[in-house]
Design a protein that fits this description.
Blueprint lengths: L4 E6 L3 H13 L2 E6 L16 E5 L8 H10 L4 E4 L8 H10 L2 E3 L5 H18 L10 H10 L6 H14 L5 E4 L6 H11 L7 E5 L5 H9 E2 L11 E2 L1 H4 L4 E5 L6 H13 L1 E2 L8 E2 L3 E6 L3 H6 L5 H7 L2 E4 L8 H13 L10 E2 L1 H9 L5 H15 L4 E2 L1 H4 L3 H6 L4 H19 L4 H8 L3 H10 L12
Parallel strand pairs: 1-2, 1-3, 3-4, 4-5, 6-13, 6-14, 7-10, 10-13, 15-16
Antiparallel strand pairs: 8-9, 11-12
Helix pairs in contact: 6-7, 6-18, 10-12, 18-19, 19-20
Bound molecules: adenosine-5'-triphosphate.
Length: 459
């Protein structure tokens, strides 16, 4: 038997409510009636209701303040059932215009009403701080809860799949991707899924430390090893014993330290600066880079042997512009996350803001998205965030717009990822679906840097 969808029905007049309830029930909805007094806490009585109806005809003026407070707290989209003249009064008009999703006449065709209500349902999930689009599978929401990584597009789903796979093995990992795409978050997610999860995760940014400090920071030093070394210091590698060490901006590691790191990866032991003792340390290294390390090798800035040692497993984190379908979901997620900093009046994003966010190229990726949303939440003086609050002007969008070639590349990548995902990463069925040979699929996977489910082993 099919489960009935549930909806709220708010009405002042019990007889009118009963009549409307019978009609809505006849089109397959289970009605939860709310009769005055209307307190927001009553919305807790049934969290399954995904949409609400308000019968405005016959509602007393004195009730409007209660109704407004309740609608403000509610995550549901609300529809007003009212005759034309019921919304002529200015305060009623204001309430309906700002807090309701639709206005329908009491004489509306029931099939039409059913259709409107069903279409409004997904809004309640989007607004509830639960950034899951309602029709995604449960597995996906579990992914997000696990890593606090938001994303439901094929590329992000494929990233979640890779994270799970590489977490289970012990080898070093190299994470590639532009700045602000979520490389550190990915490393953390891998750690949390790995057998080392109960031990610590240490992160160090190789680009942020002066050259003369990095060595003792990573490997530690003995007392008296150099001027100023008044105590023995345990380095980050040793401190991470049993856990995971995340080395961000690995391309910035000075060449002489690259040798030491390589030695550690080969022997699993370190020597503190000024010490002779070989200390065995059990640490999993995850490195990340936003620069092309192969180019750095060509230029003599990065050791090829270290590159192969680190790049045993490779994970690529996509740029935000490669998964524009996630932008709205992420925007709402961050809006909810920072909602403590906003004015009570601010309710969300205008349609125009959502459109420009989708078109913008996001050179700073998710970090930029977060910063622009936080700023907009402070700057916005209206109920809904506008493009100018985000500081995204049309001009910028045009400048970053794609060429036809870029658009083709993107579409090709997206089609490939989606087909592999639909076929559980099996290449031959994906090839059949896309009407190409399996050799072409392998070529395209290499071209677009898409990991094979087995995760490519190098070095
Ligand atoms: N999928 C995601 N869902 C939610 N938040 C995310 C996601 N990816 C990244 N973030 C957030 O975006 C910000 C930037 O992410 P992170 O620091 O992991 O990026 P990065 O690639 O390591 O950046 P950099 O290259 O500059 O070191 C962080 O606040 C992170 O929590």
């Amino acid at each position: 038997m099919e489960m009935k969808q549930r909806c709220w029905l708010v009405a002042e007049d019990p007889a009118a409510a009963e009549q409307l309830e019978a009609k809505i029930d006849s089109i397959g909805w289970k009605v939860r009636r709310l009769s005055p007094p209307l307190f927001s806490s009553r919305l807790e009585e049934d969290r399954e209701c995904g949409v609400g109806l308000v019968l405005l005809d016959g509602m007393a003026d004195a009730r409007l303040a209660q109704l407004e407070a309740m609608l403000l707290e509610s995550h549901c989209p609300w529809m007003v059932v009212a005759a034309d003249d019921a919304v002529e009064d200015a305060s009623r008009r204001q309430l309906v215009a700002t807090l309701c999703h639709a206005v329908v006449a009491p004489t509306i065709d029931l099939a039409e009403l059913d259709c409107l209500m069903r279409h409004a349902l997904p809004l309640s999930l989007l607004r509830s701080g639960d950034s899951r689009p309602c029709h995604r599978e449960a597995a996906l929401s579990a992914d997000m809860a696990e890593y606090e990584m938001v994303g439901t597009s094929p590329v992000m789903r494929s990233l979640f799949q890779v994270i799970r796979k590489v977490a289970a093995v012990e080898a070093p990992i190299l994470i590639g991707g532009e700045s602000g795409t979520g490389k550190e978050l990915t490393a953390q997610a891998i750690h949390e899924r790995s057998p080392r999860a109960s031990s610590s995760f240490h992160a160090i940014n190789c680009g942020a430390l002066p050259d003369h400090l990095i060595q003792s920071e990573l490997f530690g030093h003995e007392k008296g090893a150099f001027t100023g070394a008044v105590h023995r210091k345990i380095g980050r590698i040793e401190a991470a014993d049993g856990g995971t060490l995340f080395l961000d901006e690995i391309g910035d590691l000075p060449l002489e330290l690259q040798v030491n790191l390589l030695r550690f990866l080969e022997t699993q032991s370190i020597q503190r600066v000024g010490g002779l003792e070989e200390i065995r340390v059990d640490v999993r290294i995850i490195a990340a880079t936003h620069v092309d390390l192969e180019a750095a090798i060509e230029e003599g800035r990065f050791r090829e042997d270290l590159y192969h040692r680190l790049n045993v497993l490779h994970v690529r984190v996509p740029a935000l512009r490669e998964h524009p379908d996630d932008i709205e979901v992420m925007a709402r997620y961050f809006f909810d996350r920072f909602s403590g900093e906003k004015s009570a009046r601010l309710k969300g994003f205008s349609r125009e803001a959502l459109v420009v966010m989708r078109q913008y190229a996001w050179p700073g990726n998710i970090r930029e998205l977060i910063n622009r949303i936080r700023r907009a939440m402070v700057m916005c003086e209206k109920r809904l965030i506008q493009p100018r609050d985000l500081g995204i002007e049309r001009r910028k969008i045009v400048r970053h717009s794609m060429t036809l070639d870029q658009a083709r590349e993107r579409a090709e990548r997206e089609a490939l990822v989606a087909a592999l995902e639909r076929n559980e990463s099996r290449v031959r069925p994906a090839a059949r679906e896309l009407g190409v040979s399996h050799v072409t699929i392998y070529r395209l996977m290499e071209k677009h840097d898409i990991s094979h489910p087995g995760v490519e082993a190098e070095g």
